[in-house]
Amino acid sequence: MKLQMQSIHFDADKKLLDFIQKKLDKLETFYDRITEGDVYLRVETDDVKGNKSVHVKLFLPGTSVMAKEQAASFEEAVDLVYENLKRQLQKTKEKMNSI
Fold this sequence. Notes:
By secondary structure, the chain is an alpha+beta fold.
C-alpha cells in the first residue's frame, strides 16, 4: 500500500517510518482494496495521556476510513490506530458483502 507520511514540526527517523509502513500493510489482509493512505505524526504540546499523535486516513474505492490516537510513544499510537482501522475495515467489508 502506498502511504504518504508526514511528520509535523519534527523529523521522523527511518526506523519509525518503516515500522508504520509494515504495520499498516497488514491491514490489506482485512480489506484488499485500499488504494492509498495518509499518515500524520505530531508531537502535541500538552496532554495527560501522551503527547505523540498519529492520524491515518485510508482511501478505499468510493469512501475512506480514518483514525486518530495519542499515546506515550508513536509505536503505541500506531498499534492503537491499527486496531481501530482494522475494525472499521472489517465493518466496511461486511457492508460490501451484504449488498
